[in-house]
């Protein structure tokens, strides 16, 4: 293994990408310090704790368990050394706004029967779809996700072309799903995972049908204590490897270059040999670097397609919420208008699709006895005005919609309520226009078309996180950490 002994590294930001990079670099012998703007580690995977309730503020789906197993395995550990997992059943519930309800469970034969009720032959079509999804996942992960192909010539190699043969690389998810299913509700079930990628059925490449393998075959899991337990586990691993963490210490500027950096903070500056930024990529370029140090100009960031922001309601509720599963999706029978009001004509959606997470269905520790902890997430366009009156009005609308379409009326039982929206994402995470996730996974923003891990303008400066490859989501950010560390080792390892 290559060594970084004698090298000092500052990692700015402690999202999954920053935490993972820190582990890999420390394991290679570097002296690694992670500095975090906020008062806890985890980036968007923060916790909110109030009056005996505990909420995951950001990610809440534990998908792709194989990625976490591989990550911990790289350090001769397993996830179970740090947290326990529960396989959810159902994986999730879908409540359509015309009264239909579908539970997707670990029992594939049962799911095929449900599909058959909507469309003759859809059960067999689901099996074929998932076989294609599995192939895309296995080939895509091995040859295109864990391999950081940063230049066009990397895709012209004969071996790469051979591996790519048969992958659903081009076209949209909408077109791909229509090849298998005609019923619009079945199409929605196969496409809802696009929310995790920050895209819509019409702007996300068909390659991402691999997410259905993640969903149906690998399953949906819950880490005891919530996603915050995973953050704690990775941070504990980092401490075992020698990583130092400092919360409440934002970076205010990055100056210098390889071997002579100066990272300014409100207290004293840091002087590492190398810098890895897990802060929002656009924020790092636009706010922390001088103009001559930037790889991209303002027009670049303004022209990108961003994943949605969100209105989040964190609710502590008296009694149970039996009508809801751990994960519940509430979908209009035609969700195209909602996607259009995110990506085409940004505005607060007229008939929203939204998601409800009830961790207290699985974990008694997240709420006081006799209460439920849950949050409601409504995807909305980044950059929207979200003042108090707007939040109040839309909060009332969503809770009314939830009561009407799931039978779960929370309005007279709420004992704790916190809200989080566009301006909060911008302030807390320095995210561009308050996007909740970063750069969307459009065809022009996938693979080598995402910003690179290595700065084009400053030697010794690197980037990690959802804006880089492979992209958005906890598993992808873990892999991003591995890829960034490999890039650093390629440049500086001995």
From TrEMBL:
Residues in Amine oxidase domain copies: 17-489
One GO term (biological process): carotenoid biosynthetic process
Pathway involvement of the protein, from the record: Carotenoid biosynthesis
A Pfam family recorded for this sequence: Amino_oxidase
GO molecular function: oxidoreductase activity
KW Nucleus (keyword) present: no
Top-rank taxon: Archaea
Gene3D superfamilies named in the record: FAD/NAD(P)-binding domain
UniProt name for this protein: Phytoene desaturase
InterPro entries linked: Amino_oxidase (IPR002937), Carotenoid/retinoid_OxRdtase (IPR014105), FAD/NAD-bd_sf (IPR036188)
Keyword Nucleotide-binding: no
Gene for this chain: crtI
Coiled-coil ranges from the UniProt annotation: none
Keyword annotations: Carotenoid biosynthesis, Oxidoreductase
């Amino acid at each position: 293994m290559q060594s970084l002994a004698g090298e000092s590294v500052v990692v700015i930001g402690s999202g999954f990408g920053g935490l993972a990079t820190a582990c890999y670099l420390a394991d290679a012998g570097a002296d690694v310090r992670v500095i975090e703007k906020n008062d806890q580690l985890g980036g968007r995977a923060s916790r909110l704790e109030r009056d005996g309730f505990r909420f995951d503020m950001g990610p809440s789906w534990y998908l792709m368990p194989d990625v976490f197993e591989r990550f911990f395995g790289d350090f001769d550990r397993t996830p179970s050394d740090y947290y326990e997992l529960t396989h959810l059943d159902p994986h999730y519930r879908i409540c359509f706004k015309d009264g239909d309800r579908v539970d997707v469970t670990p029992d594939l034969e049962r799911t095929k029967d449900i599909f058959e009720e909507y469309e003759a032959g859809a059960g067999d079509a689901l099996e074929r779809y998932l076989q294609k999804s599995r192939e895309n996942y296995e080939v895509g992960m091995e040859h295109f996700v864990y391999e950081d192909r940063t230049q066009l010539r990397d895709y012209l190699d004969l071996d790469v072309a051979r591996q790519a043969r048969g992958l659903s690389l081009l076209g949209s998810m909408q077109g791909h799903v229509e090849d298998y299913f005609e019923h619009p509700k079945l199409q929605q079930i196969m496409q809802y995972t696009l929310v995790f990628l920050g895209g819509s059925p019409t702007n996300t490449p068909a390659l991402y049908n691999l997410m259905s393998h993640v969903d149906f075959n690998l399953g949906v899991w819950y880490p005891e204590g919530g996603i915050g337990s995973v953050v704690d586990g990775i941070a504990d691993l980092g401490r075992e490897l020698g990583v130092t963490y400092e919360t409440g210490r934002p970076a205010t500027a990055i100056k210098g270059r390889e071997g002579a950096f100066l990272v300014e903070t409100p207290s004293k500056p840091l002087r590492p040999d190398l810098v890895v930024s897990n802060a929002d990529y656009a924020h790092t370029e636009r706010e922390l670097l001088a103009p001559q140090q930037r790889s991209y100009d303002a027009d670049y960031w303004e022209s990108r397609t961003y994943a949605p922001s969100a209105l989040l309601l964190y609710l502590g509720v008296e009694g149970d919420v039996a009508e809801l599963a751990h994960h519940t999706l509430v979908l209009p029978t035609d969700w195209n208008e909602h996607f259009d009001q995110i990506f085409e004509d940004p505005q607060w959606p007229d008939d929203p699709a939204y998601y409800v997470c009830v961790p207290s269905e699985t974990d008694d520790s997240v709420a006081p006895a006799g209460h439920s902890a849950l949050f409601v997430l409504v995807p909305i366009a980044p950059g929207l005005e979200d003042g108090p009156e707007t939040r109040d009005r839309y909060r009332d609308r969503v809770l009314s919609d939830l009561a009407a379409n799931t039978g779960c009326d929370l309005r007279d039982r709420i004992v704790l309520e916190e809200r989080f929206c566009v301006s909060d994402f911008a302030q807390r995470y320095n995210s561009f226009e308050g996007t909740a996730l970063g750069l969307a996974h459009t065809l022009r923003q996938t693979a080598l078309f995402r910003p690179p891990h290595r700065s084009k303008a400053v030697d010794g400066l690197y980037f990690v996180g959802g804006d880089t490859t492979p992209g958005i989501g906890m598993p992808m950010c873990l892999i991003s950490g591995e890829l960034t560390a490999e890039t650093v080792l390629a440049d500086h390892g001995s």
